[in-house]
Write a structure and sequence with these properties.
sterol ester esterase activity, AB_hydrolase_fold, triacylglycerol lipase activity, Rossmann fold, Acetyl esterase/lipase, AB_hydrolase_3, alpha/beta
Length: 378
């Protein structure tokens, strides 16, 4: 990849800053909050072409070669399908993050020094405490805008380390303090624990923004997959509880409805790294009973969406949740909410964190960062 000018170089650095988010988890949350431990930011140096070696998968005929290479690497670990495992064992599986990082090593793509400092903190929630990791830009003195970030994992797997790259990338690209939230996971903590934890973390950020070099008037929420569902719910709860509503929300392939017979669920039932069977497994593990799948907190398309902040929705073509994001965008627009959305072709669920190796991820991350920066300027 030839860098022809400074603008292109800066775009590369920014775009690569979310190297490795994913919906699985290779270990429990270690609460290690040093930026020296990292799947975190972006690859610089020489990006060589990432190539797939096998045939195009039946479930994704339009898949881009770089995306296919990640899926092939993930398959090479030989892990058992998540939907066949207990939650404890599923959390031990390799992740798309692992695949991206291994491809980076094989192609001599290196990581730059972090542009943020990090610190961990325990914050109180109903029934105990949860951990948050706070990312603060090294450049500037603040007050910085604040982003409260929620990771994916179907409410069951993943942790702050697995999604470190997304949180750090947001902080670096937007120039914001990011509060990444380790909400409690199911089945140990059933619905609606994750939703309540998510709001408690947002409320804590609103009340404590100044103490973390943040601007309490400029707070946004961002989430991926299950985290996208949580981010939208935080906005709804803030509206209903009459506290400051986020200035913007970015929802990346959010879980937004209960019907697993949509066109995208049918077309990509066997896709990787997320398939229909995994979604059924996640739903069963998080909910007390399947009737709760139609609760408006789970099925956002059934919620009252009026008065929510301007929303950015990012979807992936080869993803059972593709229709979820599009349906939610339509419902938000019908409720009078300003929505900007983009669908990225040839990529799968979890592509967003793969900017080091997947060009569409670099584009999506730059788009999300621009949307947030524009919202914070208003």
């Amino acid at each position: 990849m030839k860098i022809i000018n400074l603008t292109s170089k800066l775009a590369l650095l920014a775009g690569m800053a979310f190297v490795a988010s994913c919906s699985s988890n290779s270990s429990a949350d270690k609460k290690t909050d040093s930026t020296n431990v990292d799947t975190s930011t972006a690859a610089t140096a020489s990006m060589t072409a990432i190539k797939a070696t096998g045939p195009v998968p039946e479930w994704g005929k339009s898949i881009k070669p770089e995306m296919q290479a990640v899926i092939e690497k993930l398959a090479s670990y030989g892990d058992k399908p998540i939907e066949t495992l207990s939650a404890v064992d599923a959390r031990k599986n390799h992740t798309p993050t692992d695949a991206v990082m291994d491809l980076m090593k094989e192609n001599n793509i290196t990581l730059p020094a972090p542009q943020v400092d990090t610190v961990g903190k325990e914050i109180p929630v109903t029934g105990g405490n949860i951990h948050v990791r706070i990312y603060t830009p090294k450049a500037g003195t603040g007050p910085f805008p604040v982003i409260v970030y929620y990771h994916g994992g179907g409410f069951v797997i993943a942790n702050l380390d697995v999604y470190n790259a997304s949180a750090q990338g947001l902080a670096e690209q937007v120039g914001a303090v990011v509060v990444s939230v380790a909400y409690r996971l199911s089945p140990e903590h059933k619905f609606p624990t994750a939703h309540n934890d998510a709001f408690a973390a947002y409320e804590w950020a609103v009340k404590n923004a100044a103490s973390i070099k943040g601007d309490p008037k400029k707070i946004a929420v961002v989430g991926e997959s299950a985290g996208g569902n949580l981010a939208a719910n935080v906005s709804i709860m803030a509206r209903d509880k009459k506290i400051m509503v986020p200035v913007h929300e970015v929802l990346v392939y959010p879980i937004a409805q209960a019907d697993m017979n949509t066109d995208s669920y049918k077309m990509y039932a066997n896709a990787k790294p997320l398939n229909k069977a995994m979604m059924a497994w996640f739903t069963d593990k998080y909910l007390v009973n399947m009737g709760q799948a139609k609760d408006p907190r789970m099925s956002l398309v059934m919620a009252n969406l009026k008065g929510l902040p301007a929303t950015t929705i990012i979807t992936a073509e080869i993803d059972p949740l593709n229709n979820d994001g599009k349906m939610l965008a339509d419902k938000l627009k019908a409720a009078g909410v300003s929505v900007d959305s983009k669908n990225y072709e040839g990529v799968t669920h979890e592509f967003f964190g793969m900017a080091a190796v997947v060009p569409q991820a670099k584009e999506a991350q730059a788009y999300a960062a621009d949307q947030l920066k524009s919202a914070f300027k208003k």
